[in-house]
Write a structure and sequence with these properties.
- By secondary structure, the protein is mainly alpha-helical.
- The protein folds into 2 domains: 71 residues, no CATH class; 97 residues, no CATH class.
- It is built from 7 helices and no strands.
- The longest helix is centred in the C-terminal third of the chain and has 34 residues.
- Its main location: membrane.
- Pfam families: FTSW_RODA_SPOVE.
- It comes from Mycobacterium xenopi 4042.
- GO terms for molecular function: lipid-linked peptidoglycan transporter activity.
Length: 176
């Protein structure tokens, strides 16, 4: 329950949905690995749904982020600007991309942080993004295999925690 409160607090006070989701997903993963009880995950997911719905209706910044993510073209010059520009970057990249260093970094305002995948997709195209996703998948599978092979309890929690943390942050960049 404390991790839920901390995650919701980060979302409310810092207005950082990505960090809040990463923190909570990592917590749920660790709870499951430590207890091996799927019921705790179900309870955690239920709390996540309740918190998400409440945040959507109670906080304007959450509602705006969700609505912008669902339909960025509703306000392409305002709140949807970054998403629309990132979609244009992907379109410019096409199948094989424009080549390393040949992208337009000024197109997407936060290309070096939140929208790094858009810059990557523009320069390396669909083939480059597919390669990146395959790399993420390999890292996830190797992390799971390592966790299965480890015999001590600390290692059983450490391997999946790292495996969960790194791809989660990468996944949040992909979701933006």
């Amino acid at each position: 329950m404390a991790a839920w409160v901390i995650s919701v607090g980060v979302m409310i006070f810092e207005k950082d949905l990505g960090t809040s989701l990463l923190l909570y997903a990592s917590f749920l993963t660790m709870v499951y690995l430590a207890t091996q009880r799927f019921s705790w995950v179900v309870i955690g997911l239920a709390l996540f749904v309740v918190g998400s719905v409440a945040a959507y209706f109670l906080f304007d910044h959450v509602r705006l982020r969700v609505q912008t993510w669902l339909d960025p073209f509703a306000d392409p010059e305002g709140s949807g600007y970054q998403i629309v520009q990132s979609l244009f970057s992907f379109a410019t990249g096409g199948i094989f991309g424009t080549g390393l260093g040949n992208g337009q970094p000024d197109t997407v305002p936060a290309a070096s942080t939140d929208f790094i995948v858009a810059a990557f997709g523009e320069e390396l195209g669909l083939v480059g993004l597919a390669s990146l996703l395959m790399l993420y998948t390999i890292v996830i599978i190797r992390g799971l295999r390592t966790a299965i092979a480890v015999r001590d309890s600390f290692g059983k929690l450490l391997a999946p925690a790292w495996r969960r943390r790194w791809p989660s942050s990468c996944s949040s960049s992909l979701a933006v």
